[in-house]
Amino acid sequence: MGSDRDRPNYWMWMVALFFILVLLHSMAFAEGMLTVGFNGSGTGTVKSSDNLIQCGTDCEESYPENKKVTLKASSGENSYFAGWSGDPCDGITKPNCSLTMDDDKNILAIFELNPTLQVLKSGDGKGTIKSSTVGIDCGPDCQENSAQFGFKKKITLKATMDSYSTFLGWEGFECQGITKPQCTLLMDQNKTVTAKLGLPDVSVSPSFYDFGDVKVKQSSSPTSFTLVNQGTGNLKLTRMEILGTDTKAFKMTGGSQKGLTISPGSQYQCSVTFSPTSIGVKTATLRITSNDPNESVIEIGLTGNGTDSILTESNAPIAASAAIQTFNLLGLATDLSGLSSIGNFIGSIKKIASNQGYSPHLYRNGSISLPLTCEEGGSVNLKITWDGPQLPTDPSQIMNLNMDMTFESCMQYGCSINGKVEISFEGPLIAPTKITLLVPELTYVNTYTGDDVTIKNLTITIAGFSMDILDDFLSGTITISGVVSGMVSGSEIDVECDQFKIDFNLSSGGTTIAISGKIKATCLGDWITITSKEPIFIPAGEDCPTAGEIIVTSGGCQVRIVISSDYQINVYFNETLIKTYNNCHEVMGLCCS
User: Which helix (H) or strand (E) segment is 588 a member of?
Assistant: First the structure.
């Protein structure tokens, strides 16, 4: 048995051995601490595969070395799992993460709130916007205009308009620029989308129209009514109609009259014509029905007066134009240089006949000639017969000369003529009692003056014909029947004459003209009677008169044209002054303008 002196060493060795055993046990059975936390704006829980970690409540647990643990994240209400943070789960976005406990671990689960979709409305239109998944129901007050949706969930928005409004398009994210009422978004973040809604705003002009006097069984000129959409939404015309007791007297023309859509800022025109069938005032209403919420029905008053006269206050200047044309645009001016070529032919024959010792051959003689072969191409076929010697030695021997001229693309002095002209002289050629000119059909174009005339079934009779050879002034009585149309002296003309008589006589310094008869001008649409109450005077070398008074009548109405010495022309309708013109040129073009 050992001595007491040896006992302290024994116990010392025993204590050292104990600590060595504890150290060896610790080395053999090492442990690590797994700590789970949360980050982000959302909520959720994390569980371990062995259920030792239940984080929400228990978020920390110790595990033996090399123990494998799987963490599973579950998002809470209105939240989604956005990923992990902390080694070795850092960057993993799937809800499961497996790890080996080789050390203490700190892992964060990131939860975010579900993205919010907000819907706004702009514009003055009205409508409802709903989402394909319950959440957004934006009606008139739009209280449910935002909702949270699952992360990366596809949501479709649909806009439904009321009957007055128009969907104009979307703004924001995937919906930007889409004009259809449906749009689909991917909810990968908070998003705001605006639906643009518009309303139409219609205006119509004129708001009332008086067609004035229109002859029975004839029609007024069409009057345009302009509809403008001043709003932001599409204007839909559901009906356009004429109502009232006299609806048959008014007719809408031009384009579709219902089912028409007018976009914002655009306009549409319809026309109404007044065609009375009896005498008296007629009234009706043009009613326009649309989707304008503030003025869905617009009524426009229409009125007009059926009369037995074609003349009205509004067309009085046109009637004056037709009257002025009868002596200024039918080749009846005082200066032969202003006459049509037909007038020149007559003047040429008269000049030739006045020169003693010449037979009436139509070659160049003085300033006017009519060759058989035209100088610039084409030809004129002539057939001339007369009563008297075959080879007369004096023009007085030629009686009742007849001349037929057929122009075949005749080009001469810048003029092109096609057609036939027949001229006959009654009595001696040197002093005929009557000259008759017949034109079945003829076209005449002058490239220098711009004249472009078509003549059909024209008969011109000249009686008491005389002419001053030196001054080219002619006088006599001309009676005209037939149609003359085209461009003469820079103005349009389209007139039919029925035994229209023009008496013109040489006077001091010019020619005095008297007119009477009936004409039918296209611009008036019917026959009018024209009479010169006071003779018309045209100074030598002038185009416009400086004196005269002309009366135009139709039915019970009258247009009076008074010409003054300063070329001014006053036009009266039933003794009311309607218009004043500076000269005849301002009046002449009105008839066909």
Answer: helix 584-588
Torsion angles phi and psi, residue 18, rounded to 5:
-60, -45
In 164-207, DSSP assigns E strands to: 166-171, 182-187, 191-198, 202-205
| pLDDT tens for the chain, residues 1 to 593 | 445 555 556 666 666 666 665 454 444 445 789 999 999 999 999 999 999 999 987 799 999 989 999 999 999 999 999 999 998 999 999 999 999 998 999 999 999 999 999 999 998 899 999 999 999 998 887 777 899 999 999 999 999 999 889 999 999 999 999 999 999 999 999 999 999 999 999 999 999 999 988 888 889 889 999 999 999 999 999 899 999 999 999 999 865 566 789 999 999 999 999 999 999 999 999 999 999 999 999 999 999 999 888 887 888 888 888 888 776 544 433 333 333 344 444 444 444 444 444 444 433 323 334 556 777 888 888 788 888 887 777 777 888 888 888 888 888 778 888 998 888 888 887 778 888 888 888 888 888 877 788 888 888 887 876 654 444 445 678 888 888 777 766 666 777 888 888 887 877 788 888 999 998 877 787 889 999 999 999 888 888 889 999 999 988 889 999 999 999 999 999 999 999 999 888 887 666 54
Domains of the chain by start residue, with CATH: 31-113 (2.60.40), 116-198 (2.60.40), 202-307 (2.60.40.10)
pTM for the whole thing?
0.51
Residue 591: what residue type? Answer: C
- How much is the CA Rg of the chain, to the nearest whole Å? 52
With left for phi above 0 and alpha for psi between -120 and 50, is residue 152 left, alpha or beta? left
Distances (CA, A) of 95 to 35, 87, 110: 17, 15, 10
Report whether 370 contacts 351 (CB < 8 A). no
